[in-house]
Structures are given as structure tokens and as C-alpha cells.
């Protein structure tokens, strides 16, 4: 089934007629095409949508906040008056607002649904995360403007589209609450002509027509019954009736002209991104050294990693692999913490190190000004989770080479040979970043998000190293 055509009614200015337009547009669309599924959702805090459409008196199954917590939209939809479906409004949006920061969240939720036809979103009079999400998902954004200040505010909506690299094509200005009693001298005879000229002057495209200010329409939501009546049923004699019908017809025609819907694009982007993630992951696995970078014991088989404690990658990304927990712990204690004996796994010092290592990044790098072969020194840094230096130690490499010659088994040299030494056994210009991995799933560090963090820390640290 093809994705729904999403119409977002948004303006940062309050009281310009967004909710009146969104609710009536839904009813007019339904009147135009009885079979067309029309679904309305509102992030407004006035609950007008619920008041106007709710038939069911039972408690709602959920509300629009559920769209941001992974609930499938299909299970939130209620059938309402006039054949219009809606998702109930929420009074929990102010809490949720603080937790959300991803404007693609609504598109992602709607992409999972089986919604079709036209979805109309009534946004709040600001550019909060719910409005941003509604703009991001939209095939058509109608921006009601009633005066020069509300026209000025449109800039922020256009800026949002530019900032996210979205085409401005969906955006349309609609002069609303136009007072027919006002006339001007000069080329622009009334507020509609003037607002349209302002819009064109700023390079904004307009819907055809406008919505007039009508006392009758205003009275439709203030009456002794406490109801909100539609223009279609209770305001047919007003000019707004004709204007709403005209807007609905345009929206409908645009919807059938738009073969590639925003959600289709988004779904394709998601599939594409997933494929890219998959292939990036497979490439990362393929480039891994098979054995432990210290002792050579095989750890990687069929993109799966066995019993590794640490992951290491050189800053030029030429070498990446895993290190067994024991190998790394002993190497650190022996060469950098001056331990006289090997540390056993049940030693409390081991536990202490393992625990604190989870919050650390380790670095091995040639010490500054020691490029000369006979003066080579190796620096060992420890950085915290935020990429800030915690400690630093430098050792002479030659001294350890002597030990190597005296046939004492060295853990450090095989690691350096596999990672930082050039062909002549000199430390090259790169550094090695080492990070503790989960013992259950060591390869988790190669998953997109984790690897992204690892790479971000690598760049942050690289700017701080000498
Ligand atoms: N065409 C119209 N003629 C006269 N009054 C109107 C018209 N459209 C809306 N109104 C009135 O203007 C007021 C604001 O309308 P509405 O609630 O639709 O605006 P809004 O942009 O959704 O407001 P908010 O930003 O607070 O959500 C309401 O009292 C409504 O009855
Ligand atoms: Mg409103």
C-alpha cells in the first residue's frame, strides 16, 4: 500500500486558524472523496480535535505521545465523526518534549504504519520537536499567515527545511483570517493581496486562495452546547465554506499528483541506510586481524569474536583487531604500572582495573621527539569516557628490547609489530586506540553507533596528543 500524503499545518504564530483549517480540511476531504482515508492528529494542547471528532466515550487506547515511544500508529487510531480517523491528543507532551531531539522520529513511526490516504497534522504554534517532526514528515506544509508578523515568522520554517537539506517544494503560505472589510489605496487593495505580495517578495509560494475572517466561523466553537461545529455542516452560507472546499480540492489533487510520497522517500532512505550500515559492518569485520593482537591466539571467525577483552584500532585505520583480556591487563601492569609479577584473574587489582577500564580509552603512541631509532620511547595514555586525559606514562623501548634479546618473553613487541611498527621496527606516526569490549558480544563495538562513538573519541583524542 502506498504511503499516506502528509499535510502539516504549521505556523509559529498562535491563533492564525491552524486547528480550524486542519479539522475542517479533514472533513472537506472526506466529503470530496468518501472512500479516501483521512486521519487527523494534533500536537496542539487545546484538544479541539478530540472535542470535534470523538464518538467513542471509552478511555482512549493511546494518544499522539505514543508515536514517539515506538507504538505502531495503527493501534492508536480511532474512527471519529464525519468518517475522519484521528489519534487522540495528549496532555503529556511537555514532559516528552524535553526527552526528544530527533526530528525524523515521527516519519519513522508513520513509516511503520499501514496508514494510507491523507494524514493531516495540526502543529503547535512553535517550532518544538513535535512541529519539527511534523515538518520533516510532510508532503505539503500549509503555513497560515494572517498579518506581517506571522509572515516574518515563516522564515524559521524555511530555515528548518534548509538546515535539514529538505526541498522547500512542500511549503505553501495560506493567508487566513483575512478581513474583507479592510481596503487599501494603491496596488494592493486588501490584506489578501498584500500578504500574497509579501510572500512572493520573499520567494515563498502560496496556496491558491485564502480563508476569510468570518464571525459565523468564529462562533462555531463558542456555543451553549460546548461543541465545535464544522464549517461544512454549520457554516455553508459563509464564503469560508467555498474557500475550504477549494483548499481541500487543491490538497486532494496535489496528493494524487505526488507519486513519490515523503514517507516512501523516507522508507527508501531507511532501507538504503540499513544496507550501508550492514556493508560498513561487514567491511569492518573483514578488515579485522584474526588473532589476538598481543599473543596471536585466533579470536575472529565468520564475523564473530570469541573471548576478547579489548578492541584496538590504529589512527590511520590500517590495523584493527581484538586483544584477550588477560594479555592486555598483564601488558599494562607489566610495562606501565611496574608490576613485578603477572596478575591473576581472581586478584582484586584485576577486578579494579577491569571495572575502571570500562570507562577508559587507552592510547599507545611514540613519545614526542623520539623518532630516532635508538631513543625511541613509547607513551601510554589513559583517557576518560569523554575523551579527556586521565594519566600518562612514557617508557624507553630499547630497555625492553634488551630484555627481549635476553629471551624474556615480551608481550609489548608483538603488539607493536602488529600495529605501530614500520618495516624497520620503528614506531610510525600513528597511535593505537584501545577500548574495553563487552565480554558477551565483543563485536558490538563494530556496530554503527558504538563504532561511531569510538571514531568520534579517536578524533577528539587525536587533537590533544602531542
Ligand atoms: N475563518 C475564521 N474566521 C473567524 N474566526 C476564525 C476563523 N478561523 C479560526 N477562527 C477563530 O480564531 C481563533 C483561533 O483559531 P485556531 O484555534 O484555529 O487557531 P490556531 O492557529 O490553531 O491557534 P493555536 O496557535 O493557539 O493553536 C479561534 O477562536 C477560531 O474560532
Ligand atoms: Mg491550534
Description of the molecule:
This protein has 16 helices and 15 strands. It has 466 residues and is α/β, with parallel strands linked by helices. The chain has two domains: 266 residues, 3-Layer(aba) Sandwich (Rossmann fold); 176 residues, no CATH class. A seven-stranded mixed β-sheet has the order 3-4-2-5-1-6-7, with helices on both faces. α1 packs across α10 and α4 packs across α11. The longest helix is centred in the middle third of the chain and has 25 residues. The two termini are 58 Å apart. The mean pLDDT is 91. Bound molecules: adenosine-5'-triphosphate and magnesium ion. The site of adenosine-5'-triphosphate (ATP) has 17 residues, from α1 and α8.
List the total number of helices. 16
Quote the CATH topology of the largest domain: Rossmann fold
Residue ranges: pLDDT <50 for 5 or more in a row?
none
Give the second-level CATH assignment, the architecture of the largest domain: 3-Layer(aba) Sandwich
- What is the 3D form? elongated
Small-molecule binders here are: adenosine-5'-triphosphate, magnesium ion
CATH superfamily descriptor of the largest domain: P-loop containing nucleotide triphosphate hydrolases
Strand order of the largest sheet: 3-4-2-5-1-6-7
In total, how many domains does the architecture comprise?
2
Give the averaged pLDDT, no decimals: 91
- Helical content class: 25-40%
Instruction: Tell me the Rg in angstroms.
Output: 32 Å
Strand content: 15-25%
Amino acid at each position: 500500500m502506498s504511503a499516506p500524503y502528509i499535510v502539516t499545518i504549521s505556523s509559529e504564530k498562535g491563533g492564525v486558524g491552524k486547528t480550524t483549517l486542519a479539522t475542517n480540511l479533514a472533513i472537506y476531504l472526506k466529503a470530496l472523496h468518501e472512500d479516501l482515508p483521512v486521519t487527523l492528529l494534533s500536537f496542539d494542547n487545546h484538544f479541539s480535535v478530540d472535542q470535534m471528532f470523538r464518538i467513542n466515550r471509552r478511555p482512549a487506547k493511546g494518544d499522539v505521545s505514543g508515536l514517539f515511544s515506538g507504538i505502531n500508529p495503527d493501534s492508536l487510531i480511532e474512527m471519529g465523526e464525519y468518517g475522519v480517523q484521528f489519534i487522540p491528543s495528549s496532555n503529556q507532551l511537555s514532559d516528552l518534549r524535553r526527552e526528544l531531539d530527533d526530528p525524523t522520529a515521527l516519519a519513522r513511526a508513520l513509516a511503520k504504519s499501514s496508514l494510507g490516504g491523507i494524514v493531516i497534522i495540526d502543529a503547535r504554534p512553535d517550532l518544538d520537536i513535535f512541529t519539527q517532526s511534523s515538518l520533516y514528515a510532510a508532503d505539503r506544509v500549509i503555513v497560515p499567515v494572517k498579518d506581517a508578523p506571522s509572515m516574518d515568522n515563516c522564515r524559521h520554517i524555511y530555515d528548518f527545511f534548509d538546515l535539514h537539506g529538505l526541498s522547500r517544494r512542500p511549503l505553501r503560505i495560506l493567508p487566513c483570517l483575512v478581513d474583507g472589510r479592510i481596503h487599501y489605496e494603491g496596488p494592493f487593495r486588501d490584506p489578501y493581496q498584500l500578504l500574497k505580495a509579501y510572500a512572493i517578495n520573499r520567494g515563498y509560494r502560496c496556496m491558491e486562495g485564502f480563508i476569510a475572517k468570518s464571525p459565523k466561523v468564529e462562533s462555531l466553537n463558542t456555543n451553549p452546547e460546548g461543541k465545535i461545529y464544522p464549517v461544512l455542516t454549520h457554516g455553508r452560507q459563509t464564503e469560508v465554506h467555498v474557500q475550504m472546499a477549494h483548499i481541500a480540492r487543491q490538497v486532494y489533487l496535489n496528493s494524487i499528483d505526488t507519486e513519490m510520497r515523503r514517507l516512501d522517500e523516507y522508507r527508501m532512505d531507511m532501507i538504503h541506510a540499513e544496507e550501508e550500515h550492514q556493508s560498513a559492518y561487514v567491511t569492518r569485520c573483514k578488515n579485522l586481524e584474526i588473532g589476538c593482537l598481543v599473543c596471536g591466539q585466533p579470536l575472529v571467525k565468520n564475523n564473530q569474536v570469541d573471548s576478547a577483552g579489548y578492541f584496538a584500532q590504529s589512527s590511520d585505520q590500517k590495523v584493527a583487531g581484538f586483544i584477550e583480556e588477560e594479555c592486555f591487563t598483564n601488558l599494562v601492569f607489566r610495562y606501565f604500572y611496574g608490576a613485578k609479577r603477572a596478575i591473576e584473574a581472581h586478584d582484586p587489582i584485576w577486578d579494579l582495573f577491569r571495572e575502571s577500564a570500562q570507562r577508559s580509552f587507552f592510547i599507545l603512541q611514540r613519545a614526542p621527539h623520539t623518532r630516532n631509532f635508538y631513543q625511541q620511547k613509547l607513551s601510554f595514555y589513559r583517557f576518560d569516557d569523554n575523551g579527556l586525559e586521565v594519566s600518562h606514562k612514557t617508557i624507553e623501548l630499547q630497555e625492553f628490547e634488551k630484555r627481549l634479546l635476553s629471551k624474556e618473553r615480551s608481550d609489548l613487541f608483538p603488539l607493536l609489530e602488529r600495529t605501530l611498527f614500520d618495516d624497520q621496527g620503528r614506531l610510525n606516526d600513528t597511535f593505537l586506540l584501545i577500548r574495553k569490549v563487552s565480554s558477551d558480544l565483543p563485536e558490538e563495538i563494530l556496530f554503527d553507533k558504538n563504532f561511531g562513538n569510538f571514531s568520534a573519541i579517536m578524533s577528539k583524542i587525536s587533537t590533544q596528543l602531542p
